Amino acid sequence: MKFCISAIILVIIAKYSYGQVASDTILKPSIMSVNHHFDLSAAFNDKTLLTSLMWNHHIGIGKKAKFKITYGVRVSNFYSKDVIYTSAPSKYWLKGNLSDTLSISAPQVNNLTLLIGFRYSIGRFDIGFNIDGIGVSYGGQKEAEFTKNNTKTKQDTEVSQLTALLIGANDRGMLKSELYVAYHIFEDIYVRIGISDIFTEYKTPLGISDTNGNDRFRAETKLFVAGISYCPKHIFK
Q1: Among residues 170, 169, 192, which one has the least CA distance to residue 182?
Q2: I need a labelling partner for 226 at 20 to 30 A (CA). Which of 6, 31, 179, 205 fits?
Q3: Contact 197/168 with Cβ under 8 angstroms?
Q4: 79, 87 in Cβ contact below 8 A?
Q5: What's the DSSP call for residue 28?
Q6: For residues 58 and 130, what is the distance between their CA atoms, to the nearest angstrom?
Q7: Alpha carbons within 13 A on the beta-carbon side of 200
Q8: How far is CA 148 from CA 98, 152, 219, in A?
């Protein structure tokens, strides 16, 4: 599989004049007390590319708001080659002889999800984590090689549409998580690097496997991730 990766260079040069809030002013809880971030990232290894566009809110906790709760929306696109998928239900996931396999030469999965997470600020640096919560996945049908008891057959597969964070092997669909360190180049622009863990999932016609009718198959991929974020502080002013 050949990948055509377009390098996207974001250059944002701007100057802002901020008014100073009087010390005796009490900010009422409102959308203005939330940081709004737009983020573009790419996660990859030698045979996989995962691009994501994210919009999220960081709500500061405490007087200095160093700890922040994150929630938002993310769109992701997963491309890879020669991926082995194994039986997804928790009673079969990574259980050796109990698990059947699907081999897909060029899987491609997209999803739209709500995400949750947190971050902690230390000077110009942030340490953060986020994970998809619930959403929908989509993509075209793929031909796969189904293997059971050393017997191989060709099968048509489709992307599992439901995405849901249900903890561990109970998860469903395509789920992305990130653990990262960010550095603020400017007050409103930061770059980040980290690691990303991604589940993708395909479904087969019922009945091809005798493991109680299982039709879901999952693959886990670990990637290096890099991104850039922009925080338009006065977007709701």
Answers
A1: 192
A2: 31
A3: no
A4: no
A5: P
A6: 11
A7: 30
A8: 10, 7, 17
> Look-up: residue for tokens 């405490």?
62
First to last CA, the chain: 47
Neighbours of 60 (CB within 10 A): 15
Half-sphere exposure at residue 236, Cβ-oriented, CA atoms within 13 angstroms: 10
Q: Token digits for 19?
A: 């008014």
Contact present, 6 and 199 (Cβ < 8 Å): no
Positive or negative, the CA dihedral 90, 196, 82, 109 is positive
Nearest to 159 by CA among 186, 180, 137: 137
Map residue 94 onto helix, strand or coil.
coil
Least Cα distance to 140 among 112, 119, 161 occurs for 161
- Contact partners, residue 48, CB within 8 Å, separation at least 6: 78, 79, 80, 81, 221, 223
Cα atoms in the 13 Å half-sphere on the side-chain side of 17: 0
Per-residue pLDDT of the chain (237 residues; tens, 9 = 90+): 333 333 332 223 233 333 333 233 333 333 334 578 899 999 999 999 999 999 999 888 888 889 999 999 999 999 999 999 998 988 888 887 778 889 999 999 999 999 999 999 999 999 999 999 999 999 999 999 988 877 888 989 999 999 999 988 899 999 999 999 999 998 889 999 999 999 999 998 775 655 567 889 999 999 999 999 998 864 444
- The two tokens of residue 212 are 């109680």
3-state helix, strand, coil in the chain (%, to 5): 5, 55, 40
